[in-house]
Amino acid sequence: MREEYILAIDQSTQGTKGTLFSADGRLAARSDLAHKQMIDDLGWVEHDPQEIMDNVQQVVRDVVEKAGIERTSILGVGISNQRETVMAWERESGKPVYPAIVWQCARAEKICERIRQDGWAMKIRKATGLQLSPYFSAAKLTWIMENVAGVKELAQKGNLCCGTMDSWLVYCLTGGKAFKTDYSNASRTQLFNIRDLCWDEEICEIFGIPSDCLPEVCDSNALFGMTDFSGFLTKKIPIHAVLGDSHAALFGQGCVREGGIKATYGTGSSVMLNTGKKIITSQKGLVTSLAWSMDGEVNYVLEGNINYTGAVISWLKDDLQLILSPMETEALARGANPSDRTYLVPAFTGLGAPYWDSDAKGLITGMSRVTGKKELVRAALDSIVYQISDIVRLMQKESGLGLERLRADGGPTKNRYLMEFQSNILAMPVEIPEMEELSACGAAYAAGLALGLYTRKVLQQPADIRLLPEMPEEERSNCYAGWRGAVRQAVHYHAD
């Protein structure tokens, strides 16, 4: 009997993965390509969308060749993607009008402030579930509309497409035949009404984005179009799932019921709690989004987003040159002086949830004469844990749901020190699945379920590692109090 596979493309902030999943739901092969991170002197962050599209084509070729499988054995494609990153392109030619503006980029803060002063922040929050912020796609698109020559004219002529990375990939992979997104990605743009489940015309007008420039919104497991990857495959196959990467990870983690919670440790981090059919509005900085819509059935989430988690490790390596590889950090952290109380608050582009302070500044505090390389590395790892814990604690309080465990995924979860400290600070079991590629996994499972290759049993993957808290309560309390004090300093910092 011929083996059958699902191809999953995970297009993330740092690069693109091509993955193949077998009929039993296991990862069969993986191929990766990084793309350039374009950061200027103002801290503006951009990607080249054509480079990303070229990389998608290449990783698909690479992973199929690496696996040594027949191209005809691939049943369909699922896509997971970096979410709030947004771009615009000419509808007819497919030519980008400007580089993709990455979710980390805060260039649109003045636009948000203008809208805030006009009194629209509460309206936007109520309709979209999202705090008014340059983090999300809407204000970034406004910036493109107001600052890139010729864009408004293209929009007026009906020749402009505005979308997140998934809609760009679908558009390109289908040869311009499909301009679609899914509910999870749409809900992160700050233009989508999560109650009415449609683009909000009034909010689009507030941001100056014509709604006819936006993609069709589909179920996350819908048929998005057909592709043969520019002739690489012998026949076209269906793109049958699209999910934002954090939503895909939630699905891949099996957190498909109310109370399921996961943290994705990537460049930044998303902590996501499945609230089922309930729309829970946070009073303390969490946002409400759609988890997904599958076969017409919608699930909601509470989510907290963090700008710098894994990126802190990159900062240690690339900017401070304290380490040669992220693999060094575990041993360095374990070797740090136990008496040192150094804290790092990585507010390099402000603080996300639960603070939402774009003016907060990064700082290192609590240093003493014993503070050295090991202590700074430990403080960097600890900052990841504390930021995740801030959000999980708030979710527990605001949802009223009993959270039994935290499911964790992403590259940094390989760091045992990091994960042990996470369990200790949360006083909660932390479970790490055997499979690392949970975003790709979720996209593959959604596509495979839609195509009939998988049953719901595939969502019950066991954890490979289960860590239990061991830290005494007094020590936990003291550690966390020190972190909160450091955050207060970052929030109240003002340059002379």
The total of helices stands at: 15
pLDDT average, as an integer? 94
Strand arrangement across the biggest beta sheet: 18-19-17-16-22-23-24
- Report the strand count: 24
Strand content: 15-25%
Provide the low-confidence segments as ranges.
Answer: none
- What Rg is obtained from the alpha carbons, in whole angstroms? 22 Å
| SSE class | alpha+beta
What's the shape? globular
Span between termini? 72 Å
Helix coverage percent: 25-40%
Second rung of CATH, namely the architecture of the domain at 5-244: 2-Layer Sandwich
Q: Could you name the CATH topology of the domain at 5-244?
A: Nucleotidyltransferase, domain 5
CATH superfamily of the domain at 5-244: ATPase, nucleotide binding domain
CATH class group of the domain at 5-244: Alpha Beta
- Can you summarize the main beta sheet? 7 strands, mixed
Give the tags:
seven-stranded mixed β-sheet, globular, six-stranded mixed β-sheet, 496 residues, 24 strands, 15 helices, single chain, Nucleotidyltransferase, domain 5, alpha+beta
Give a nutshell description of this structure.
This protein has 496 residues and is α+β, with helices and mostly antiparallel strands. The protein has 15 helices and 24 strands.
How does this structure look, described?
This protein is α+β, with helices and mostly antiparallel strands. 34% of the residues lie in helices and 24% in strands. The protein has a domain at 5-244: ATPase, nucleotide binding domain (Nucleotidyltransferase, domain 5, 2-Layer Sandwich), CATH 3.30.420.40. It has helices spanning 49-67, 109-117, 121-128, 137-147, 151-156, 165-173, 183-186, 201-207, 245-252, 310-319, 329-334, 373-399, 416-426, 438-450, 473-491, and strands at residues 5-11, 15-21, 27-34, 38-39, 45-47, 74-81, 86-90, 100-101, 160-164, 180-182, 192-193, 198-199, 216-218, 225-227, 237-244, 261-265, 269-276, 287-294, 297-306, 343-345, 363-365, 406-409, 430-433, 463-467. The strands form 7 sheets. It has a 7-stranded mixed beta sheet, sandwiched between helices. It has a 6-stranded mixed beta sheet with strand order 3-2-1-6-15-14, with helices on both faces. Strands 4-5-8 form a 3-stranded antiparallel beta sheet. Helix 9 packs across helix 14 (438-450), helix 10 runs antiparallel to helix 12 and helix 12 packs across helix 13 (416-426).
